[in-house]
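From the shared-data thread, chain only:
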Amino acid sequence: MEQFCPSKSYRKYKENEPFIVDYIEMKEKIAQIREKIKAESIKNKESLEVFRIQYLGTKGVIKELFGDLKALANEHKKEAGQLLNSLRMDLEAIYQKHKDNLEDSSSTDEKIDLTRPSENFNIGSRHPLSLVRSEIIEIFARIGYAVSEGPEIEDDWHNFSALNFPPEHPARDMQDTFFIEKGEKEMALRTHTSSVQVRVMENEKPPIRTISPGRVYRNEAISARAHCFFHQVEGLYIDKKVSFADLKQTLSYFAKELFGEEAQIRLRPSYFPFTEPSAEVDVSCTICNSKGCNVCKHTGWLEILGCGMVDPAVLEANGIDSKEYSGFAFGMGVERIAQLKYKVNDLRLYSENDIRFLKQFTAG
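Structure, as tokens:
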């Protein structure tokens, strides 16, 4: 490509004085440059780079013309500046256009080797708690349970009072609950997803058959078997003539679907403010095959959930006639279920985000 530089003929010199640029001659040179660039032939990246350096580079034509601008008479500087700005913008547009065209042509000319082996991709895995949560939801969905969700920050009514918790109940104490606001309008991080069941009973009429998965919070010491936040799935079934036998058969079905046909459950009498009668449910420990280990405290059984018949006071508090309807409720910790299913002996691993641990789990 032929090099082009503006002639210095429009510079007038006087001895011992700065040179003066003639405006008419500068306009002529700008016109000459415009004619010159029309004839430029840019066919490859090398010629494009020569064009850029010659016209737009730090020592190029545009830079030199702008340097001469300050030597013009003041009355001509504004108009000359506008001409130079217009020329520079046109040169930049020409450069960009050719650059884009060359890049497009190079990408279309690139040949693809269809016989080349594909690259390996690292496929992520789902979190074990997500896998177990989804499996629990699927098991109960097969027998007609719908999924309901609610807020993690709850008021006193939905978290305690509507569930028959008396004012002096220890769960209301600061040692068990993370309170956000105390006093007249008490707000706390929910301690169970039973609060979601309250909302369902407030807004739906029986029959009700729902499960409520979600994260809950309790002020507990962190250990291999407990954490200050964990995940629950709670179930509620309300209809006419619901019995404790229905509850037991439902939980037996669940245990066998999740842990296999060999899984056994046992129910131990217990107490919950919102159910009467109440029971704790244990499942045979799959970590040690019921032989005894540190997770099941060498009993061969591991507690997985609490359950019971919904207390009539809870039904009445939520606008349901306890003389016409009855029901049962249950709640389980997802971490505890995952502990049994995957034989994990420390539930702190679930929240440490250790890739070596997490990549062991896959769906299916």
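Confidence is low (pLDDT under 50) at residues 2-10, 12-19.
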